[in-house]
Amino acid sequence: MDSPAAISDDLATFLESGISVVVGSRDAQRRPAAMRAAGAVVSADRRSVTVFLPDQNAARTLDNLRDNGRIAVTFSRPSDHRSIQVKGSCVELRPATEDERARRETYVAAFVDELATVGMARENTGRLTSWPSVAVRVEVEEVFDQTPGPAAGQKLGRTA
Fold it and tell me: Is the pLDDT of residue 46 over 90?
């Protein structure tokens, strides 16, 4: 396996902003599961990303990650469809801390604002569940541009 890919400062800012974060996993029979995460934090060394899965609906995804550790996380900004997919291995599962809770609330507020720019009512999107959460640390192996257009699907370099 290659060493983890490094995430550039610009990409880290994008991944940590108020955008859509969807986690994909699979079970032992390769049946997919997907769920919305409540934000992300890029590590200081830029080689891992921690995403936060609301406890309320994370059981299937967590079972998959415990089974095989494979994970794909898609980050997409609704207002312009800029999208990035990170693929890697789950290297840590733990309860999110109280210190991380404030970051989750900030993320949800920013995501609700982003959704409002495309006409989604705040009274609906503001009900997104984000707490309590499980912190899932992903060692980044590959990063892909998934923005619609001619570069969609292209793998980004070792430093994305």
Answer: yes
